[in-house]
Amino acid sequence: MGAIIPVFPLGTVLFPGLVLPLHIFEERYRSLVRDLVASTDDEPHEFGVVTLRHGWEVAAPDGDAERPADETPITVDQLYAVGCTAELRQVTELPDGRFDIVTVGRRRFRVVAITADTQPYVTAEVEWLPDEEVTDPVSTLLAPRALAAFRTYLDLLRPDSEVLDQVPDDPTVLSHLIAATAQLTTDERQELLAAPDTATRLRTELRLLNREAGLLAKVRAVPVPLSDLARPVSPN
Question: Lowest-confidence range among 16-30, 45-59, 110-124, 194-208?
Fold first, then answer.
């Protein structure tokens, strides 16, 4: 049997090393935050973030975290198979019991099953995906090409972007940054999260970035604002 962890179904894809702030307003997830804060120091203060498939997500008002439309039980079919744990880094409790939290993506997992649990929040059986080899020579060769393609893409999309003010040296970290920052569909982001290794992710990103840069270059020749034609930014 795999590990049992609490999971938070969201409309976003979290990648290892990336920051995810959340506003926690729903009572069952307030309980999750309280349980994590109360856990001992030698236990990981983390929960799984899994992305809801299209049609199940509902945008919550006022910038709150997204959630299912009702309190019916979550099923595996509603979720993408691969998620990432979010480690608590900062917790601010508001006077009315809500929380503002800051988390950082930590480790990837595959959802095996939603488990029956006495907790008010969702829990799942998961299997951990293997850590990626950081010294892989192929990814080391691909990283500069992916970075160059990412720079070209950002220059076309938003020339004043500050995303690459500090470029990560690690190819794996770079691959996660590109995946989280580029304006991709949820399916594309999930494909990148589930990639078996950094080299595969970088190859996929090169293909996607070259495609997007080509589309943006054509759009710039059309006499209408770029914002009217570019791929819509995900609200996640």
Answer: 45-59
Does residue 40 sit within a domain? yes
First vs last Cα of the chain: how many Å apart?
A: 32
The domain of 112 spans 3-128
Torsion of CA 188, 192, 194, 195, to 10 degrees: 130
Give how far the C-alpha of residue 155 lies from the chain's centroid of Cα atoms, to the nearest Å.
Answer: 23
- pLDDT tens across 143-170, in order? 999 999 999 998 888 766 666 667 788 9
Q: Which residues contact 74 (CB under 8 A, 6 or more apart)?
A: 9, 68, 114, 122
The model carries a pTM of: 0.83
Distance of CA 172 to the CA centre of its chain: 15
Are 7 and 117 members of one domain? yes
Q: How big is the chain by its Cα radius of gyration, in Å?
A: 19
Q: Is residue 235 part of a domain?
A: no
